[in-house]
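Most newcomers find our protein records easier to grasp once they have seen one. To make this concrete, we reproduce a full record directly below:

…
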Amino acid sequence: MKLIRLLTLVTLTCTASVSVLAKPNHFLARCPNTPNCVSSQQNPQDKEHFIEPLKITGDHAKAWLALQTTLENQTRTEVIKVDDLNLYTETTSLIFRFVDDMHFTLDNEAGLIHVRSASRVGYSDFGVNRGRVEKLRQALQQAGVVE
């Protein structure tokens, strides 16, 4: 009986961390009610969770590639999955080894890259996820691929 409970717990834990990857194209998981997540698909009235999407200037494929390259060059960040419309990363904090997930989805029609950045555990992230997205935005602005 204990073995069954243990296996059930392990299965639920594994599926919970991967469930963000199961969302359809162009839709990001909603942020929880905790202040450790930002998303460009939250209601703009939700100042705690909403963040502006990345507005592409010029070629969408070039912007998507620049995003991927920038993320691959960040310390403690690993690109987990990438395709033509979705990109997933995991970033591990230096000291406590907490993992934050980022999901990007390319909306070619709107000329946007939507983003969600969230901590897996804890309540507050002290603005780390918002700061990470804004730092990424600055790098892509300097590359000339987003506004």
User: Anything to note?
Assistant: The beta strands are 37-39, 54-55, 77-82, 86-92, 99-107, 112-119.
